[in-house]
Amino acid sequence: MSGWVVLLIATPLLIFASLGGGMLPSIIKLTHLRMQLALSFVSGLMLGVAVLHLMPHAVIMLDNSVDKAAFMILLGMVGVFLLMRFLHVHSIEPGIEPHTTCEQDHEHNHADEHTHHVHPGPAKGGAVRWMTLLAGLSLHSIVDGAALAAAISFEEGHAIPGLLVFIVVVLHKPLDALAISATIGSDETVRKRVNLLYALIAPLAAWLAYLGLMGVGESGSVVTGYAMAFCAGAFICVALADLMPEVQFHAHHRIQLTAALAIGVAVALALGLIEGHGHGLGHSGHGADDHSSHDHAH
Fold first, then answer.
1. Interval 108-164: pLDDT, tens
2. Nearest of 216, 210, 233 to residue 69 by alpha carbon
3. Are 76 and 62 in contact (CB under 8 A)?
4. pLDDT tens across 104-121, in order?
């Protein structure tokens, strides 16, 4: 399937996912456990996609240069970490229903340590807070869009990389939109406008990145490799940022959260195995081309 067709299909789905995330509190009851289960699953999927798909494909696109791929992966991890550090971007616990007694006591005991979460209602300097969060998550969305474009442009005959990145992005967008909407407060008009603006960022970034990758000509594969490696690092950083703060604070739900994480990784692994049946043939073809050109040169 052509990359243009994939983006045409993905664009409305990404927009609806973000818009839906902003409306989640009015549709379903979001408990603390449900939010953490969703985060654990999406984080596991992000880790699996980054390590099992984006990283290997990036190495291939960079002429099997592990050093180049590793540098860009590190750059992606550090870059997103600095983004989170200075713009206070983190996921997400807004608009949830009251916890159980056990959870309330647990949350109270760790209130000071857990302040990175976004809680319901406007905080002090509320406008500044949601604008800062919007800016940070918008940059995050640009990375998501670039990752989707890079995965789609990676040998258009292989659908799995683009599909996996799309699944990760479309599952993570509602959580991000939910954080922004809850931080804005009770102003319905502002919330709807901001949510719509945020919903458009990732698709727009994907289109611009895809057009850019298509416009660089023969060097497009190398640029795609760098982009995929950077986005792999970004995915790893985001996934660990969602997971690590919960390791010590949710011992009472460790089995459920670990299972959700494992399921996310398993989904990425299963789709990778499906891809492998046809992907090896494609790579062997590339290898043949490389050898034939090498022999011709001599």
1. 444 344 434 444 444 445 577 778 778 878 888 888 888 888 888 765 555 667 778
2. 233
3. no
4. 444 444 434 443 444 444
Q: What is the mean pLDDT of residues 212-228?
A: 80
13 neighbors 165 (Cβ within 8 angstroms): no
Cα 61 to Cα 108, 161, 283, distances in angstroms: 49, 13, 11
In this structure, what DSSP letter does residue 97 have?
A: P
Alpha carbon distance 268, 266 (integer Å): 5
User: Where do the domains of the chain lie?
Assistant: 3-277
Longest dimension (CA), the chain: 75
Sequence-ordered list of residues with C-beta below 8 angstroms from that of 2, at least 6 positions apart, any chain: 156
CA distance 197 to 201: 7
For 208-236, letters b (16+ CB in 10 Å) and e give ebbeebeeeeeeebebbbbbbbbbbbbbb
Q: What is the DSSP letter of 156?
A: T
Mean pLDDT of 158-181: 80
Bigger pLDDT: 263 vs 99:
263
